[in-house]
Amino acid sequence: MQTIQGDGFTVTVIKSRRRTTAIKIKDGAVSIHIPNRLAITFAQEFILQKTAWIQQKLRHQAHAKTQRASIKKQFIAGENFLFLGKHYSLRLIEKNSKVSIIKRSQTLDLYGRQNRLSKTGIHAALVAWYKQQAEQYLTSRTLYIANQINLSPRSISIKTYKARWGSCSQHTDINFNWKLVLAPARIIDYVIIHELCHIQYFNHSSQFWSLVEQFCPSFKQERHWLKENSYTLEF
Ligand SMILES: [Zn+2]
User: Ligand 1 centre and the CA of 164: distance in Å?
Assistant: First the structure.
């Protein structure tokens, strides 16, 4: 495999039948994808021009990685958990009863028998609680917005997704990731509007985005927030 040494990074050269040149940076690895017919000197020149941009991307990715690592949940008393963008401190309260969670103004109080207050028990209880909250909040909020903007889905469901916040099928069945209820309300509204707009445009065309903008004028900010902060909603 051919590589090019950049200023503080190494670039893997990948030649293919593609027509355009692109630099990809993933998990700290840089690669340049160039059309077969182009010489390696072209790639070298291209990288030289993009050096500042590559360095910035690499710094950014490294920073995000440390942030993600530091945010890994422990599922212990006193730990903070997000709900609608607000932090709640987890309180564990031993009680001879079924597991239940009550959200207070500053805390999430988890009641249950001692053997249920282990790390896995807490994790399971929180996931169940969030899913239940998501079902209530996202369903009623979606119905409300759907009514306002006159785009109604056939159904609304809550799912577990690894890397998406929502989806809309061609039959206008809308699904949301339950983890969305950890995000601030304005971010949730953007995702809801985004999925509802797919009822009208089943693509990401410019018409689609202008419809989103019509109902959510600041959508670029919300979209950007999701890109930058999704890791804080991880579970
Ligand atoms: Zn979409």
Answer: 10
